[in-house]
């Protein structure tokens, strides 16, 4: 047999060639400007001070001209600094941690469903078996939590229990945040609360203002019906407000209230959210005060929003509606992942030029030209986003979402570890899931100064939103937060199927 050729794709020499290419392209201007500036400096030194003085005198500038030049320079610098965006800092955040009494192991969930089926004959054995199969493949662990009213027999579903759950989750997260930051409720200038399904009157934001006796001139907003990506939408809204209101604090609260919207019917597309969604919430403190830069954890670099609602198929892929028996639920269509992939593609197209190094952008451009002009069947080049980010927080909407992004973005298991572990420990906590994932990275002591974080959220409508943060300071492994009592047990191996 002839000697086989070496595997050039895994060659160490090829690896160093690629690293050299990346360094050369990403620092192209620096590598040109440094020798040029050094040459100019050496030439100035060679000429000597006498020649420089003669050159200055030859300009024949009088006092008025010098003052005008200085004034113009100061004016240009002032306009530049005033027109540049204000830096937005994430001072700190806190996540709601359900008490141990709210934990619902999978076996208890199925047992409760079987008991409920005796009160609701339309919930047949096939539907229960479907729920069991979904739980076995969901990636959820045995410590996820549901609100107490859902576990009553029959489950309670009313405005009263919804308000009770909202007060428990939202107030707990805000209390933790105020304790961590030593910020008083009267200091808050902007309040944004997002909850997709539960939208009472007065609003949840009004409930927060009433509880904490906030100022009468607070700018308060309540977002509903915007799905699991509403957390990043709230951050974007707070960012826009902080750009026009200097020296301000913004409080962003993200949650999903489950009690009044627990589906009690028999439609499989509506039963799936019962398997995935769990209790959770987060409170985030943002500020544009430069005095907060020293203690803030992160600085917001970019928020990119993609909305596919103009397409009817995308608009209806996550839809709240009634089943034939009149039970209200959230229907998840089979083509959800295809639509999510299309939305992600559009979002990446926008965010890529903002974050990718020049080396990746050049390779992408060359590949695009080659496919247009030479061979349309040439495989598209997927930019290496690992060159732009150290950490990834992918919305823990379900195991399939994480698997698909890991494959399409060519990420390693470590890059999606935070998302998988957050889904395993807390389930799909909707718009707050990204903050449980960020807390996991911090609890592991992996967040270093200068690290960049990419948060990706998906939501009904259909939307895909991204936020990019840069770590301001090295964050030591925390002993508090939602992972305090279990971080040493993670990561855990999650089998493809966990038999109940």
TrEMBL record:
Highest taxon listed in the record's lineage: Eukaryota
Protein name per the record: Uncharacterized protein
């Amino acid at each position: 047999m002839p000697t086989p050729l070496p595997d050039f794709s895994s060659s160490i020499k090829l690896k160093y060639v690629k690293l050299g290419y990346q360094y050369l392209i990403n620092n192209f201007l620096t590598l040109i400007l440094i020798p040029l500036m050094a040459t100019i400096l050496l030439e100035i030194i060679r000429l000597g001070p006498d020649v420089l003085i003669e050159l200055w005198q030859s300009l024949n500038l009088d006092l008025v001209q010098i003052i005008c030049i200085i004034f113009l320079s100061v004016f240009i610098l002032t306009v530049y600094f005033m027109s540049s965006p204000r830096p937005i800092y994430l001072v700190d955040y806190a996540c709601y941690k359900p008490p141990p009494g709210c934990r619902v192991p999978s076996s208890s969930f199925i047992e409760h469903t079987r008991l409920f089926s005796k009160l609701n004959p339309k919930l047949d054995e096939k539907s229960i078996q479907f729920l069991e199969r979904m739980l076995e493949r969901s990636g959820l662990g045995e410590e996820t939590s549901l609100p107490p009213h859902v576990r009553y027999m029959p489950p309670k579903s009313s405005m009263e229990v919804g308000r009770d759950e909202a007060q428990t989750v939202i107030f707990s997260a805000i209390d933790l945040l105020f304790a961590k930051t030593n910020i008083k409720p009267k200091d808050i200038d902007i309040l944004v609360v997002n909850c997709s399904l539960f939208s009472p009157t007065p609003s949840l934001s009004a409930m927060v203002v009433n509880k904490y006796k906030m100022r009468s001139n607070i700018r308060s907003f309540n977002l509903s019906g915007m799905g699991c990506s509403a957390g990043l939408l709230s951050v974007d809204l707070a960012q826009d407000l902080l750009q026009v209101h200097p020296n301000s604090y913004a409080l962003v609260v993200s949650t999903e209230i489950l009690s009044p919207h627990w589906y009690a019917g028999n439609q499989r597309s509506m039963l799936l959210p019962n398997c995935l969604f769990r209790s959770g919430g987060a409170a985030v403190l943002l500020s544009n005060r430069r005095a907060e830069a020293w203690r803030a954890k992160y600085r917001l670099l970019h928020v990119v929003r993609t909305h596919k609602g103009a397409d009817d198929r995308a608009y209806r892929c996550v839809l709240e509606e009634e089943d034939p028996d009149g039970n209200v639920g959230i229907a998840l269509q089979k083509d959800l992942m295809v639509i999510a992939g299309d939305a992600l593609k559009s979002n990446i197209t926008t965010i890529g030029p903002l974050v990718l190094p020049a080396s990746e952008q050049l390779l992408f451009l060359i590949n695009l030209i080659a496919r247009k002009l030479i061979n349309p069947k040439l495989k598209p080049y997927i930019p290496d986003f690992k060159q732009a980010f150290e950490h990834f927080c992918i919305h823990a909407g379900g195991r399939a979402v994480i698997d698909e992004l890991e494959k399409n973005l060519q990420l390693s298991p470590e890059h999606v570890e935070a998302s998988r572990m957050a889904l395993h420990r807390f389930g799909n906590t909707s718009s707050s899931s990204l903050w449980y994932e960020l807390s996991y990275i911090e609890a592991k002591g992996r967040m270093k100064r200068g690290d960049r974080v990419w948060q990706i959220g998906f939501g009904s409508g259909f939307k895909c939103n991204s936020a990019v943060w840069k770590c301001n300071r090295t964050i030591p492994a925390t002993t508090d937060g939602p992972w305090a009592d279990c971080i040493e047990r993670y990561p855990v191996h999650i089998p493809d199927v966990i038999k109940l």
